[in-house]
Amino acid sequence: xxxxxxxxxxxxxxxxxxxxxxxxxxxxxxxxxxxxxxxxxxxxxxxxxxxxxxxxxxxxxxxxxxxxxxxxxxxxxxxxxxxxxxxxxxxxxxxxxxxxxxxxxxxxxxxxxxxxxxxxxxxxxxxxxxxxxxxxxxxxxxxxxxxxxxxxxxxxxxxxxxxxxxxxxxxxxxxxxxxxxxxxxxxxxxxxxxxxxxxxxxxxxxxxxxxxxxxxxxxxxxxxxxxxxxxxxxxxxxxxxxxxxxxxxxxxxxxxxxxxxxxxxxxxxxxxxxxxxxxxxxxxxxxxxxxxxxxxxxxxxxxxxxxxxxxxxxx
Length: 315
Description:
Layout: H1 38-49, E1 67-68, E2 76-82, E3 96-97, E4 108-110, E5 118-121, E6 124-129, E7 139-141, E8 143-145, E9 155-162, E10 169-177, H2 180-183, E11 190-195, E12 204-209, E13 221-225, E14 235-241, E15 245-250, E16 253-259, E17 274-282, H3 284-287, E18 299-311
Parallel strand pairs: 4-7
Antiparallel strand pairs: 1-16, 2-18, 3-8, 5-6, 6-18, 8-17, 9-14, 9-18, 10-11, 10-17, 11-12, 12-13, 14-15, 15-16
């Protein structure tokens, strides 16, 4: 989900998880540690994986080549998530809302705690974009965020979701740095785990934004995976975020690797906490490039679960 002027077949359904006994262990790096550069990166890699960080090449063509990588659940420990198993409004201990017209010249008004736009129903979160002229707003939708409730630094962040399609739709699952209020965008960093635009229905997208690389400069770092028809079924979208790189997945296809090329926050502002955002936008700078098909409303962005894992040491 770019921020302007601020902003295969589906996998089988994975069993719901019981979070009552899950420890909330999320590795974070404090601001003063960021100045110690590669030493901290190596230490964090040791804590996350049980092994020293190996030297990595810089980003290149190979980093956008689709590669099959099977997810090994034994290598990861669940530390946070939402299984959306209680009907009603989203869990207020985990999610807050953005409200209003926020970014990207999008057409929708984001509402707060309005079931018509965001609700848990039948074991799924439904984010619904409507053309209902609510309170004078032609289009309404919702954007759920974990800001000031839960943040994350490193680990595997994933969602299992079914996206809507049609001209004008722009669902996304993404992160922003908690320090956005102090440094602004894009210096805070942005990780786009899932982006999809309905006018280009058979592609999924992953993108990374930072001060050095972003769409405003025309040099953004990202990739897309064509031929997927993600609107037909539920699929898993994930990022594995390490101290020296990020790997993006559609189901078990890795299709983007963004590598840390220097100990410089302009290219790697990703050693500090980020919060999650989950939204369905309508129109805007990218989603609205080919207009909005008003005959298709309402649109539903359906989410089976959101999960965050920490890498565990392998024996």
